[in-house]
Amino acid sequence: MSLLAIYCRLPMLHSFRGTTAFPIWLLTLAMTLTMVGCSHPPYFRNEPIERTQEADGYRVEQAFYDPDQAEVAIVLAFSGGGSRASALAYGVLEELSKHRVAVRAGVRRLLDEVDLIYGVSGGAVTAAYFGAYGDRIFSEFVPNFLSVDFQWALGREILNPVGLTRLLDPAIGRGDILQERLDQALFKGITFGQMQGRPRVVLGATDLSTGARFEFTQNYFDLLCSDLSSFPVARAVAASTTLPLWLAPITLDNHAGQCGDSATRALQASMNRGSPADQLLLEDMIHYTDGSGRPHIHLVDGGLSDNLGIRGLFDLETLSRGEALSLPPTKVHIRRFVVITVNAATAMGSTIDESADIPNTNSVFSALVDLPMARKSRETELLVADLKRRHAEALRNAKEAGQQGIEDYYAINVAFRGVTDTVLRRSLLSMPTTWKLSPEQIELLRNAGATLVRQSPDFQRLLRDIGSERLATPQPRATNSTGTSVPKP
After folding, report:
1. CB 177 within 8 A of CB 94
2. What is the dihedral angle through the alpha carbons of 61, 201, 257, 276, rounded to the nearest 10 degrees?
3. How far apart are CA 166 and CA 175, in angstroms?
4. Cβ within 8 Å of residue 363, ≥6 positions away
5. How many Å apart are CA 43 and CA 232, to the nearest integer?
6. The pLDDT of residue 337
7. What CA–CA distance (Å, rounded) separates 3 from 170?
8. Taking a C-beta distance cutoff of 8 angstroms, is the pair 205, 214 a contact?
9. Cα(8)–Cα(98) distance, rounded to whole angstroms?
């Protein structure tokens, strides 16, 4: 039992004899413990559900259900990398807002054609903010987040007397305080149930117990027999950004076993099919259905399992073989499928081979943490590039079978190594992974994101194929009562 718990359970210790011998600072501490520590809930408890409803909830496959979006389907993936990643992703959104195209639903911006956004760590902040507020991001995100020394603000929340006393409770961690800070500064209590519009935003975290990727979608929450609709977006962003050792994991309650076993049966029906990677994915998901063995799930930074954030797109094909999980994006005929990966990784490599000296502890630690994520990101980039070949093969098969398939595919990769200016590239690659940016760094990253998208050969080909007009400034969309962005009529 923690000191705080003992204090809360022994009210007689609060009393004292006399008034002159009792130190004022001790009285203040006692009042703080009583009013803050003892009354505050340990952490947000995600609610259970009695049964799963396959068509309900915040599900990734719903991103592709709208016939008006069939002309162009766009998927974005925002990587990790602290505020550096947040600003680079923001620059990409700005660029997409400046191109107007003619599609079935009329003349719209390319940004309005975005169906799905994957985000991890720093990229999760931008993805979630756009999902929650739409075009308000263009007037609010820089002053509310990018220009703020969020690192200092979070440290102040953790190290003040209230924060320190709360941390005496083992059920409260620095990740929970991160969630509260994100909610106060950005998300204002918005839940996934209030983000029912498009685009769908999928935030990724890492299961601390298994190392598996965890997605904040109802598809995953079905396995926990839990309800995502009442889950705070800020808590999901905190889970995606809470780097181990620096911040504590975010905890979910696992209610698996309380809503039937349809999700388990669907996963088991897909076992023994597909590649070894498919098998591992299904095994990881089946682990979540053991509510008695794993009553709590602890989540950390999503970049540890998928720093590019887009692995879920490849998992759709595997999960579609089940009976009750995600369907591939085939509800409507998609003519053009666009994937834009925004990779804020600073480098893949090390300088330790340049010297015969034994690498120091910092170099070894950096290599052990950074290089596996960089390699995984590069592997994912290659998988995205390979989708073009796979879609061409699928289109040929569809035509032979007399069916419709995706007519064209565009892979657009935004990464610092694509910057042609040597000085600028070195400047971008030297930016540390922190939650603090200078105004000059913000501008460099925003411009880099926009320029790298605009210069991509596949992006230029997309604009030629559908015809476009570039606007001078971002054009806003209307928002509903919850702040969710919706297209203007």
Report:
1. no
2. 70
3. 12
4. 350, 352
5. 12
6. 87
7. 10
8. yes
9. 57
- The 3-state secondary structure of the chain reads CCHHHHHHHCHHHHCCCCCCCCCHHHHHHHHHHHHHHCCCCCCCCCCECCCCCCCCCCCHHHHHCCHHHCCEEEEEEECCCHHHHHHHHHHHHHHHCCEEEEECCEEEEHHHHEEEEEEEHHHHHHHHHHHHHHHHHHHHHHHHHHCCCHHHHHHHHHHCHHHHHHCCCCCCCHHHHHHHHHHHHHHCCCEHHHCCCCCEEEEEEEECCCCCEEECCHHHHHHCCECCCCCEHHHHHHHHHCCCCCCCCEEEECCCCCCCCHHHHHHHHHCCCCCHHHHHHHHHHHHCCCCCCCCEEEEEECHHHHCCCCHHHHHHHHHCCCCCCCCCCCCCCCCEEEEEEEECCCCCCCCHHHCCCCCCHHHHHHHHHHHHHHHHHHHHHHHHHHHHHHHHHHHHHHHHCCCCCCCEEEEEEEEHHHCCCHHHHHHHHCCCCCCCCCHHHHHHHHHHHHHHHHHCHHHHHHHHHHCEEECCCCCCCEECCCCCEECCC
Where does residue 23 rank: exposed (0-12), middle (13-18), buried (19+ CB within 10 A)?
Answer: exposed
User: For residue 360, with 0-12 CB atoms within 10 Å meaning exposed, 13-18 middle and 19 or more buried, which class applies?
Assistant: exposed
What are the structure tokens assigned to 428, written together?
A: 């971008």
Q: Average pLDDT for residues 316-345, to the nearest whole number? A: 66
Please state, in angstroms and rounded to a whole number, the distance separating the CA atoms of residues 356 and 362: 16
Residue 229 pLDDT greater than 70, yes or no: yes
The token pair that represents 256 in the structure block: 């698996």
| Gyration radius of the chain's alpha carbons | 24
Structure tokens at 433: 């992974």
| Separation between Cα atoms, residue 209 and residue 193, nearest integer Å | 28
Question: Residues 410-429: pLDDT tens digits?
Answer: 999 999 989 999 999 999 98
Can you tell me the distance from the alpha carbon of 220 to that of 223, in angstroms, rounded to the nearest whole number?
A: 5
Q: What's residue 149's pLDDT?
A: 87
pLDDT digits (tens, 9 = 90+) for 259-278: 877 667 767 666 666 677 77
Q: How many residues does the chain have?
A: 489
- What's the pTM? 0.81
Q: Which amino acid is at 466?
A: I
Residue of 86 and 173 predicted with greater confidence: 86
